[in-house]
Structure formats: structure tokens, C-alpha cells
Design brief:
It is a single chain. By secondary structure, the chain is mainly alpha-helical. It is built from 16 helices and 3 strands. Strands 1-2-3 form a 3-stranded mixed β-sheet, with no helix packed on it. The termini are far apart. The mean pLDDT is 87.
């Protein structure tokens, strides 16, 4: 029989753990509610300005001037070098300060970027929104550094979930993105609770949840497996091309222009000219502007142009270099969907299946987050084609090497035999 003092100690420990669990549950629910409301408002704001721009194409004339205004606003807020998602990631790992003013700045500037027609996403902004609010909540509640890190991750999960409608992917993405190969499991409960709370808030506010269907899933035999593997290889190289375009556009085109306002005007003018050219060639002035969700739908139906992914890479690289805000994740979905759709008739596979595999594989290639890539597709398309999604994701993860959208992303394990571990990403 155990001594009384041992039983008392165990009861004391059990009570402390119960209280800690309740504390984190309450904090996570609060985080999910706040960020769910902000994230859903952000979503509807982007939807509204996108519809406004598509109905009134003359808003595209703002392209040469919109990024100049964004630069000026950031300058007034003393955020000439905002850091973006990299700042959030370094905050999680190194404790870097995330100012609360990032929230209204990225909120307004991203919506305005979509109004102008810049080729940017929204999930990169969501990560910054969630990280900034989570960091501020940690300061308000005077949490320790390890607890602050968890609340930042919870905020990121909530924002991603609210915008994408994928709570499972949001919870895992927050833990997976910072350090490749290492999941920060102390944040598991908070990120899950926060992500699902934000998702529920989005549903209450009437946000639609996207869902797509496959037309035909082949039997899992050698021939279709080899075919879908080709999508994985192509997606891996497309991910590398996308990252290099973002890097080199900034380094060799944007930087030599000198004055950042002049740079913004010139690159915005180039975007406007490219938009006019695509309008003349394709008859659609909105094909590659904004997030490009319409083109993703066309890709799933097998009706996107074969070169669409190249155009999206070009438009996005110019938009980011011009200082428009929003992020690169949704453009990566566009690129992956159109790469897969372009290969579908060649491989004699369902366009929806190839588009979904391409979306997951390119996303994995640029973020190095294979689990999140799988969960996104599973939540958007269902689990029926699971073997045909995981194979291209795994291939793209290897093919893309150590390239990453985020310079502060760390690789804790080498992808290839003989490489050094604990590499720093962001090639």
C-alpha cells in the first residue's frame, strides 16, 4: 500500500494538470472566437472586393499605384521592413516581438491588394493576423515564453482554419510549418481547439465551406500509380520554379530599381500591361489577378490553359516584388491545380484527381508541410483518393529539396543521405 504522502502528491499533480488543461482550453476557445471573427471578416472583405473588381475591371488601373500607397501606409506605421510570415516563424522559435499593429496593417493592405488585382493569396496574411493576435493575448495574460509560443501557434491555426474552412489542416499546419521534421506537440490541444472554434465561428457567420468531387478514381494498380507520380515530379519542379521566381524577381528586377516607390510603380505598370495582354488573348481580364479561385475551379474541371501555372508564377512574383500583400499559399494551389490539370489528358487521368494531387504536391513543395498538404485535400475533396494524393506529395517533398517560401524555416532532418541535419531553410 502506497504511503499517504505519495497519494497526496499524485492528487496534487493531477489537479495541476487538470487546471492547466482547463486554462489552455479556455484560452484556445477565446483565441478561436476572436481570430475566427477577425478571420471571417477578412474572408468576406476579400470576397467583396474581388467581386467588385470583377464587376468593374477599371479597378485594375490601380495596379501601378496601389503598392505605392501600401508602402506609404507601412512607412507611417514604422513598418518599412515588416518581416511578414518569417517574423511570425522566428517569433515562435526565437521569441521575436510581433507588434499588434501588424493585424490592421496586413488586414487592410491584403484586402486592398485584392481590390487592385494583385496576384496574392490570403493565408500568408492569415498566419500574420493569427500570430499577431495570439502574441498580444499572451502579453495581456502575462504568459511565460513557452506558453506565448503555444498561443501564437493557436492563433495561426485559428486564422488558417477560418479562412480555408479546413480546421484539421489548420491545427497541423501551425505545428508543422516552423521546423521541418519536428512537430511541436505541446501545442496540439490548443491548436485543435482554437482551429475548430474559429471554424465554428466562420460557419455561424455564413462562410461557405468549399468542397470538390472526383469524377473517376482508378484502381490502385501500377499504371495509374506511375502516372500520378509524374504529377508529383512536375509539382516538385513547379514549386522550385515558383520559389526561384519570387527570389530572383526581388533580387535582380526589383532591387536594382532603387527607390521603392518607383519600383512599385514600374512593377505595377508591368502587371497592368500583362493583364491587358491576357485580356486580349484569352478574353478574360481576371484570369491571373487576385487569388485566382475561378481558375482553380476550371483546372478541377479540366478547362484551364496548359500555361496557366507559368502565368500565375509570373504575376505573383511581380506582385510580391511590387510590395503587394497577401502571401503565396493560394497562388501555390493555383499553380498545383493547373499543373495537374495540364497533365491529366496526357496521362489519361481525371482532371480533378490530377488537380488535387498537384495542389497538394506544390503546396508541400513550397512549405515542406506534407501532413498539412494531405489534410487540406482530404478536407476539400474527401478521403476516397488518399493513395493517389499521398504519393505525389511524398515525391514533391523530396524533389523540392531544401527550397522554402520562408527563409526562417528550419530543417531538423536531412531529406537526402549525406546532407547535414539542422539545416536552415529558405534556399
Amino acid at each position: 500500500m502506497r504511503p499517504v504522502y505519495q497519494v497526496a502528491d499524485r492528487l496534487k499533480i493531477g489537479c495541476k494538470r487538470t487546471l492547466a488543461t482547463l486554462q489552455w482550453t479556455l484560452l484556445s476557445v477565446l483565441s478561436g472566437v476572436i481570430i475566427g471573427l477577425v478571420g471571417t471578416a477578412f474572408y468576406f472583405g476579400i470576397v467583396w472586393v474581388t467581386g467588385l473588381r470583377q464587376s468593374h475591371p477599371y479597378f485594375l488601373l490601380l495596379l501601378p499605384f496601389g503598392s505605392m500607397l501600401i508602402l506609404f501606409i507601412y512607412h507611417l506605421a514604422d513598418r518599412d521592413h515588416p518581416g511578414g510570415t518569417d517574423l511570425v516563424l522566428s517569433s515562435i522559435r526565437e521569441g521575436s516581438y510581433i507588434p499588434l499593429r501588424m493585424t490592421p496593417l496586413i488586414f487592410i493592405s491584403t484586402i486592398f491588394s485584392h481590390l487592385c488585382g494583385a496576384s496574392v493569396g490570403r493565408e500568408g496574411a492569415a498566419l500574420q493576423l493569427g500570430g499577431s493576435i495570439g502574441n498580444t493575448m499572451a502579453r495581456i495574460f502575462r504568459l511565460e515564453e513557452s506558453e506565448r509560443r503555444i498561443l501564437v501557434l493557436s492563433g495561426m491555426a485559428a486564422a488558417f482554419s477560418a479562412l480555408m474552412g479546413t480546421p484539421l489542416a489548420g491545427a497541423v499546419f501551425a505545428m508543422e510549418i516552423t521546423s521541418v521534421g519536428v512537430m511541436y506537440y505541446p501545442a496540439l490541444l490548443p491548436t485543435v481547439v482554437s482551429a475548430f472554434t474559429a471554424h465554428y465561428i466562420a460557419l455561424l457567420m455564413g462562410q461557405p465551406i468549399p468542397h470538390y468531387d472526383f469524377n473517376l478514381i482508378p484502381d490502385f494498380t501500377i499504371a495509374p500509380v506511375l502516372k500520378i507520380s509524374i504529377v508529383g515530379v512536375a509539382a516538385g519542379f513547379a514549386a522550385i520554379l515558383f520559389i526561384l521566381a519570387l527570389r530572383y524577381t526581388k533580387k535582380y528586377i526589383a532591387s536594382p530599381l532603387g527607390n521603392r516607390y518607383l519600383r512599385a510603380f514600374i512593377l505595377g505598370s508591368v502587371l497592368l500591361i500583362l493583364t491587358a495582354i491576357t485580356t486580349y488573348v484569352e478574353g478574360d481580364s481576371q484570369s491571373y489577378n487576385g487569388a485566382g479561385m475561378d481558375m482553380i475551379h476550371l483546372a478541377i474541371e479540366g478547362r484551364s490553359p496548359w500555361y496557366a501555372f507559368l502565368m500565375k508564377i509570373l504575376f505573383t512574383a511581380l506582385s510580391i516584388a511590387a510590395a503587394y500583400k497577401g502571401g503565396e499559399i493560394v497562388p501555390s494551389f493555383f499553380i498545383g491545380a493547373t499543373v495537374g490539370s495540364a497533365l491529366a489528358p496526357i496521362l489519361s487521368l481525371d482532371p480533378a484527381l490530377c488537380a488535387a494531387a498537384g495542389m497538394a504536391a506544390v503546396f508541400c513543395g513550397v512549405t515542406n508541410c506534407p501532413l498539412t498538404a494531405l489534410l487540406i485535400i482530404f478536407e476539400l475533396f474527401g478521403f476516397d483518393a488518399m493513395p493517389f494524393i499521398i504519393i505525389p506529395v511524398a515525391i514533391s517533398y523530396v524533389v523540392s529539396g531544401y527550397f522554402s517560401l520562408y527563409k526562417t524555416q528550419h530543417f531538423h532532418f536531412a531529406k537526402f543521405k549525406g546532407d547535414d541535419n539542422h539545416m536552415v531553410g529558405g534556399v
